[in-house]
Structures are given as C-alpha cells and as structure tokens.
Design a protein that fits this description.
The structure holds 2 protein chains of 2 kinds. By secondary structure, chain A is mainly α. Helix content of chain A is 68%, strand content 1%. In chain B, helix 2 crosses helix 7. Classes of the chains: A mainly alpha, B alpha+beta. Chains A and B meet through helix 1, helix 2, strand 1, helix 4 and helix 5 of A and helix 1, helix 2, helix 7, strand 15 and strand 18 of B. Strand 1 of chain A pairs antiparallel with strand 19 of chain B.
C-alpha cells in the first residue's frame, strides 16, 4: 500500500528547484510577476496544509502544480473584480524578431485553460498526465485542450496581419 | 514533438525569460501556511486589529511633522540639490549607459550624486541619487560577489509632506548570486538591501528583524541597510531613525503580512467604510463618459507608431491612441487608446489605459461605450488601475480615467494626509506611500460636491 501524504522536505525541494517555473506559469494566469510570486507562495502554503491528502498515485510535482494553478486562478479572479481587463506587461525588447512577439502575444490571448495547458506542456515540460493532475481534468481533456490551442495558434499564424493606422 | 510544437516551445523558452529566483522565500511559505490555517477564525479579529493599526498609524505618524521640525531637520539637502557628492563626468556617463535599459532612464541633464559606498561580504554597494522633474530617485548598485540594481523614486510632495525623517524606497530587496546549472540559471539570495532618503538631521538608522538589530549607514541624504540574515528568512520588520541628540523615531513601513494583505485586498473589505474621506455621494453623474475620447479629439501628445507596443497586448486593431501626462513634472505618462481585440473580447471595442514609466507597465481596458465600472452596485465616475508606480516597493501608483463632470480628485490616506490628484484631460495619476494605506480616492464636481469615492485595494 502506498504511503499517504507528502513530506515537507519533498515540497521544499520542489519549491527551491522549480520556483521560477511555477512563477512563470502563474504569471500566465495573473498577468504580472509580483502577483504570480504571491500566487506561488499561497499555492505552496495551501499544499503544506493539505499535504496529508496527497495520495501518492501521481507525481508530487503535478499535485503541487494544481495547488499553484488554483491559487493563481483565485488571484486572477480577485484582481479582475476591480480591473475589467488588465494585464501587467513587459516592454518588447528591441532586438526580438516580430514573429516571436506575435506568437507570444497569441499564446497570451488564448483562453485561460488553453494558455495554462500550453505553458505547462511547453514551458514547464510536464507530460499529459501531470498536466491533467495540475488542471484537475482527465488526460483526454488535456489532449483536446492542447489541440484547440494549436488550432487557434495556427489560425492566428495564418491570418493576415493587421496594421495599426 | 512535432516541428510546430518545437516552434511554440522554442518561442516560449526564448522570449519568456525565467524570472529572477531571488523572490523565492520558503520561510514566507511556511508562515503563510500557518497563517492561512488561522485566517477563517481570526478574520474578524484581524480586521479589528487592522483598523486599530490604521488608527495607530494616524496617531503615530501625524505628529511626525513636529518631530522633524524639532530634531531631524527637513529634506533641504535634497530640495536644494546638495545631497551627497557629485560624481565625475566619466562616472556619470558610465551610470547613464548602465541605466539605459532600466525602466527609468537617467536624464542627461541631471546631476548625479554619490551618497554611500561600502563593501561588505565581498559585495560592493553604491547608493546614487538624482533628480528628474519633480521626482527624487535613488539607485543602489551591488557588484562583485553578488549583484543587483534597484531604482526607485519619490515625488517632491513626499519630501515636502515631511511624513517622517526617513522615506524608505525598497525594503529587503534581494541581492543575488547567479548560479548556472546546465541550461538553468538560479539566483541565490545573499543579502537584502533596504534604502531610502533621510532628512538632514538624521544621524543614525537601524532596522530590526525578528531576532537581530541591523545598523545602517547614513550619508549624503540617503540611508542603506544591508541584511545578511535575510537569506534565512529574517526580514526587516521595523526601521528607526535617530538624531544627534539621541531622539529615536520609528519609520512607517509597508510590510504587511499575507493575512493583512488578503484582508486589504478582499472585496468585502473594500466595501467597508473607513474613518476618513467622504462617506456619502452628494451628486450622481448619470451615464458617465469622456467626450473627447468618444469624439477622438487629438488631445495630449500623439504616440509614435509601435513606440509602446507590448508583447502582452492581445492581437487587435488600435484606432486611436494619445499620450497624456497629468502631472507634467511627474514620471508617469498614461497612454489612452481605443482598441478592438480579436480574440480576448471578440471584436469588442475597448477603451484602454496604460501607465508608462520608461516602458508600458500594464494596461486596463473596459467597453468604450460604457467604460466606468459598477462596484458594489454603484457606478463610479472614475476608473482606477493600481500599479505601475516608480516608487520601489514602498510607494504605490494609481492611474485612471475620470468622467466628464469630475473637476478634481483627492486621495485620503490613513495618516490623515490628503493628496491632491493631478488630472488632465480626464486622466489622473497619483503616488502614495503604502505605509499610509488604506486609502480612499474621492471625486468632486465643480461645486465641490462628492460625485464618487472608493477605497483602494491595499498594497
């Protein structure tokens, strides 16, 4: 029988080694780095409180991702109560090719779950099963979500460019 | 992975840099985990405590003007431009070059002053000061064994208000050592720096963590406290300043626990009235709007095409864009634009505001035909967006739009201060110290009747 619960040292180790990835994915949800850091801190603090409920039937990292993603979504909801539509931004670096900027902007414009799935897959390098745990969905749903994201990105890439007047 | 997927992955890895790992703070996670367990049962109690703290701030901070007048002097060194010592021309151009990619560019015509230089633990720390417009800026540069560069500015009004003999700008900002592990780069926090401006009569400054006292350095109108224990989670919790007679004053500091932070940010708390600022709307502005934007009048300044484009703007069409600077001598510029977004709000035309301090610092959009939000059932005649301020982690900035019919606005702080809010062409911007929060933003018509007020979210 698998031992139930996660050890504090295991959580700390993942926090220390993957902190930056957690912040970056949380940022894809909440918009700015400070709020993302806050969401990661809250996500981990929730995970510590509930570590006894970790059943060990999947990777601990995926379980932690779920806690962080939930904290980020809650933070985003609190934030959007005041700001109808607000995202903190970084200025474009002068030497980046336009196509990269566009792809990044299109990823940023995906619906929340698709955006999260893309970041978890291609940025945090999680497999479908871990993404499913992180998002609280079935593995098949991850596949469908990523397919939808790919279709939207392909449409954007093939669409004619708009030019500001 | 297909080549298409590889493209997406490569773009994300290449163009979304990992944030500095310096914000990592396991001690904070542990303290939040024990605090959050208590949140529910202590929420009401804490609100009472928060109110008591707000009242205490009012009581403790209000008499500081008198304290400054008595023993600490004022900020005349800064206001007259004689703080610190001038640097050489060569040093100035090296500083300007290093600041080129910073969010606030060092103005060519400004005088750069060196305030403090010290070396500790193999790290060299230099504190510089300069003035740009009506803002006083400090930059700390850490080099050698660990590195960091932080810049923060406070408005002249903060010095004139004489809130306290010291104005902290950053508290425990991380100084990190870079470690490379294969393709990953880790930033290990080696120390924390706390720095700010001091009035002329301050002779000493010190900070306390949970278990230690840290003596800071005062020089050239600035102060610098280096916290080597911060890597172990011992954060600066309080700062005191002393004058040559040994009189000691506690400096207001924004250092909220996560519990207070969540309390201040919660919707229900934003609903609760505060013991300062207006409590009743005296006139309602029906169907609030901004005529010149709807008519697309060319007010303010034009925005060069692509000048402030941001990676995070969703794809869409910009049909109108102007730049407004409500405070001509301030650092914050505001872009007002009309955009039609293609994906996020399909083909809906939105009115957007973006604060700019060197670069776009965020944006907030609402429907063009009905831009003013309804909060708690009331339609406000103004719209606010927090963040984007240039004042380090101790000063906040709020920018927004006010409806036609709003003649003036005032920010009420918990320390009893009232800050007049500069407005130009319906765009406003205001900076304030987080330590004096909570705050209420109020709008008035030409006859000084209250047309709207709202408690702002906490820091």
């Amino acid at each position: 029988m698998k031992k139930k619960g996660a050890r504090l040292e295991q959580i700390e180790e993942l926090y220390r080694s993957r902190y930056q990835y957690f912040v970056q994915v949380a940022r894809a949800v909440v918009g700015d780095e400070a709020a993302a850091h806050d969401a990661v801190q809250d996500g981990f603090s929730q995970a510590i409180r509930k570590r006894g409920s970790f059943r060990g039937d999947g990777p601990l990292e995926a379980w932690l991702w779920r806690s962080v993603v939930n904290a980020a979504i809650s933070a985003r909801r609190r934030k959007s109560a005041f700001d109808p539509f607000e995202i903190a931004t970084e200025a474009a670096s002068d030497d980046q090719p336009a196509s990269d900027d566009e792809i990044r902007a299109w990823v940023a414009a995906l619906p929340e779950r698709q955006r999260l799935a893309v970041f978890l897959r291609y940025y945090a390098d999680l497999d479908y099963r871990a993404i499913a745990t992180a998002l609280g969905v079935e593995t098949g749903t991850v596949s469908a979500t990523l397919n939808a994201a790919h279709a939207a990105l392909r449409r954007s890439i093939s669409a004619p460019k708009e030019v500001s007047p | 992975m297909t080549s298409y997927e590889e493209t997406i992955q490569s773009v994300l890895v290449r163009t979304v840099p990992l944030p500095a790992g310096a914000g990592r703070d396991w001690e904070d996670v542990l303290s939040r985990s024990s605090a959050s367990a208590r949140t529910v049962r202590t929420r009401r109690l804490v609100y009472s405590v928060a109110l008591a703290v707000a009242v205490a701030i009012v009581l403790a901070v209000t008499p500081l003007g008198a304290v400054i007048a008595r023993g600490f002097g004022d900020f005349s060194g800064w206001l007259s431009g004689s703080a610190g010592s001038p640097v050489t021309g060569k040093e100035k151009s090296a500083f300007a070059n290093a600041s080129r990619r910073s969010w606030i560019r060092f103005p060519k015509t400004a005088s750069l002053r060196r305030l403090i230089v010290t070396t500790k633990g193999g790290v060299r720390y230099e504190l510089f000061g300069f003035r740009t417009g009506d803002s006083f800026c400090l930059q700390v540069v850490a080099s050698r064994a660990a590195t960091a560069r932080y810049t923060g500015c406070v408005p002249q009004s903060a010095l004139q208000a004489k809130r306290a003999p010291a104005l902290p700008i950053f508290v425990d900002a991380p100084v990190s050592d870079r470690e490379t592990h294969g393709r990953h780069v880790d930033f290990i926090k080696r120390a924390g720096v706390t720095f700010g401006i001091v009035s002329d009569g301050v002779a000493g400054i010190s900070a306390r963590t949970q278990s230690h006292r840290l003596n800071g350095i005062v020089g050239g109108g600035g102060f610098l406290i280096i916290n080597y224990r911060s890597a172990a989670g011992a954060r600066v919790r309080s700062i005191t300043a002393s004058d040559s007679q040994g009189d000691v004053t506690r400096i207001p500091l924004a250092h909220l626990t996560s519990l207070q932070k969540s309390l201040q940010n919660s919707l229900s708390d934003m609903k609760k009235p505060l013991p300062f600022g207006p409590h009743r709307v005296q006139r309602i502005i029906k169907d609030p709007t901004i005529g010149w934007i709807v008519r697309r009048e060319p007010r303010g300044e034009p925005v060069p095409s692509g000048r402030f484009e941001s990676l995070f703007w969703p794809p869409g069409l910009t049909s109108f864009e102007r730049s407004i600077k409500p405070d001509p001598k301030g650092l914050i510029q505001v872009l007002v634009s009309i955009r039609t977004f293609r994906h996020v709000r399909r083909d809906r035309t939105e009115l957007c505001v973006s604060p700019v301090v060197g670069r776009v610092r965020g944006y907030s959009c609402g429907p063009l035909n009905n831009p003013f939000p309804r909060i708690f059932g009331r339609r406000l005649p103004f719209w606010f967006m927090s963040g984007g301020g240039p004042g380090g982690d101790q000063y906040g900035g709020v920018v927004g739009l006010s409806a036609d019919g709003v003649a003036r606005m005032t920010l009420f702080l918990a320390n009893g201060e009232r800050i007049p809010v500069p407005i130009r062409d319906n765009v406003y911007v205001v900076q304030f110290p987080f330590a004096a929060c909570p705050a209420v933003l109020a709008a008035y018509d030409r006859k000084s009747r209250v047309v709207g007020f709202q408690r702002l979210p906490g820091p």
